[in-house]
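Case study.
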Amino acid sequence: MSNVPADLKYTRTHEWVRSLKDGTIEIGITDHAQHSLGDLVFVEVPEAGRQVGAGEPCAVVESVKAASDVYAPVAGEVTAGNAELATTPELINQDPFGAGWMMRLKPANPGLLSELMTPQEYAALLKAEGG
Amino acid sequence: MVDFGGWDMPVQYTSQIGEHHAVRRGAGLFDVSHMCVVDLRGAKVRAFLEKLVANDVGKLRTPGKALYSCMLTESGGVIDDLIVYFFDESGLDESWFRVVVNAGTRDKDLAWIRKHAAEFGVDVQERTDLAMVAVQGPDARVKVAKLLSREGAEAALALGQFVGREIDGWFIARTGYTGEDGFEVMLPAKDVVKVWRDLNALGVASCGLGARDTLRLEAGMNLYGNDMDESKNPLESGLAWTVALEPAGRDFIGRQALEAIKARGGIPRFVGLVLEDRGVLRSHQKVIVPGVGTGETTSGTFSPTLERSIAFARVPAGTGATVQVDIRGKLLNARVVKPPFVRLGKARIDLGDKLR
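After joint prediction, the assembly is written out as follows.
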């Protein structure tokens, strides 16, 4: 069974969102997502300053078998991409909710964060998908 | 699990990269029972195969010897690639050969084989009673030998490259699709689950389709449907070595078309690529050859052995030492190399500088 930390928000496309004290959010892919993809060998994260729209593909994760887009959960401005992932993409497999974070974003409308999925809703989605 | 030619098959059992390394460093086990095994019997099987396949079965004189070949359309397109085994022609009225074709092309292959077999009076029998496992890696042959009788083990370990024989009721051949030593074993389907578990117990790792793909790509081996199909001929698919134009009198299907293609010249090159930048090459990416033209990758992956991305590509004649590949709109640099990338656990190409 996949790990679904209780202190995060989630998307239908298997990203997680952590609210940070400075008002920005940290984004990565879930344990379920990394497990489905398998061993990651290449990760491309956005550069700071890029404006992204909600649902826009803004990063790419590639495992041996396939490439997948990672989508912005909400609109905003990228404040940081995790540079470590360029040389150690396996951090996402090893620690998807921690060292494997992908990007930080300053949300255009912080009020919309409450509309993301709760851990309970995300766990129900995984169950429905058979994971 | 994925659908593969109508069979449910696992992409991986545990980890695709772990399974890959198991084969390069020890021994791995693949269920290849989806492959379609067809026995050909009759007085004129050899003459039939001389017409059916582009490689020359005249090279098969010793029982058990195997030959890799393509089966072509009249216009030279590849219907499928296959392995032909020569078994026996000691009887006056009966010779026996076996071909192994891909699962995804089974229906059209059988139809094509039957259509041409009729005029030679060849009996075509699909062997659905047989399962097939590939045991591959530097330790693979010794592991399989542990399951055999003492005489059987000796016989199996004495097999030469690309030769098989009936041992202890199994057909064991020293063939494979990984670039490592090993065996492919055809055995009664009812026995295969026990054999699988016995090999696991001997430390042979179960390997899925994912590792099979990265291993064959590193080994420079083509995959039907990716690297060639009916719209492509073997000369532009890295398979010229499997086309026997000698002896000149052997009139195999597709011969005239290939001779015309050769005479015209300008045949696209089929090359290996090593990505010099960070990223992963995949099939159907556009290859840009500055000043020459464009081509396309046919298979691509991350090579676990080389820790670089590698690919096969069809590029214009006249392509030089470097190309660029369009990956999601970015042009990345790749070096042109001659496959295989890896053989018997060792890199066969210069890896050059560290990744940028």
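Observations recorded in class. Chain B touches chain A at residues 11-12, 15-17, 210, 214, 278-280, 282, 301-302, 304, 309, 328 (CB under 8 Å). Chain B has two domains: 2-216, 268-356. We will return to this complex in the next lecture.
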